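User: Okay, second chain of the day. Same drill as before: sequence in, structure tokens out.
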Amino acid sequence: MAALGWLTPRRRSATARSVLAGEASAEAARKSSQDAVAQDVSAQEPEFPVLGDEKAAAFFDLDNTVMQGAALFHFGRGLYKRKFFETRDLAKFAWQQAWFRLAGVEDPEHMQDARDSALSIVKGHRVSELMSIGEEIYDEYMAERIWPGTRALAQAHLDAGQKVWLVTAAPVEIATVIARRLGLTGALGTVAESVDGVYTGRLVGEPLHGPAKAEAVRALAVAEGLDLFRCAAYSDSHNDIPMLSLVGHPYAINPDTKLRKHARAQDWRLRDYRTARKAAKVGLPAAAGVGAVAGGTAAAIALHRRRR
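Assistant: Same drill. Structure tokens below.
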């Protein structure tokens, strides 16, 4: 039997070199598997936006999506600076803006108050005058509040040869100025009535808000010959779920709580470009809100005293 010992495999201990060889082989196998998965995912999810797709476009909400805060409030600050209204009105604008920035949602009552204030302020002024002032106000209060992340998303669509539209409840004149300054295609916004180029203080129809945004996007898609399934829409607010639901590529940007929950349930893509987003959950808003209002009011008083 001893003569047959050579038939029995010998049990040898692994050397350092054999261990290294085994580990290298395992690592190569793992990487190969990962590459295969990545290639498979890439095949399933083509690059977006699609270069040269003329049937596709992108629709961006403005307030808290493209811009930090509300465009209408920033516009109000600029009009106050130009003596369009009194100090007490500035304090009201300051409070509304502070609430909006901290809550991160569009409260219908607050937004209606802001629109009513703006309409009463511009009544009797020429449309051309407000457009010119809007250019100045953009540089003073809005340019530095554009979210770089959202701006990059819009640019990606432009670079792909697609049209990009703002869709907002803000006055269409303000939205048009912002769209032009960002190099976007154009803007859909709330239309204030004017006669012979002068504002009457009334709206044409209703504010472009909620379901009205979806209808505006649908109408524009028909006019432009777009395929909404190939289009994208971006918003921070659950009020814009009707608009987001219209397109094949909905994005929740800096989403409020309701939109975040809905987006996750629908497997929509989310992007959040805010800092200290959870501050509202640890008691900071109250103090910050008071500070914002106090700061705005103090600024108003200082300006008033300087004029005296």
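Confidence is low (pLDDT under 50) at residues 2-11, 36-45, 276-308.

User: Thanks, on to the next one.
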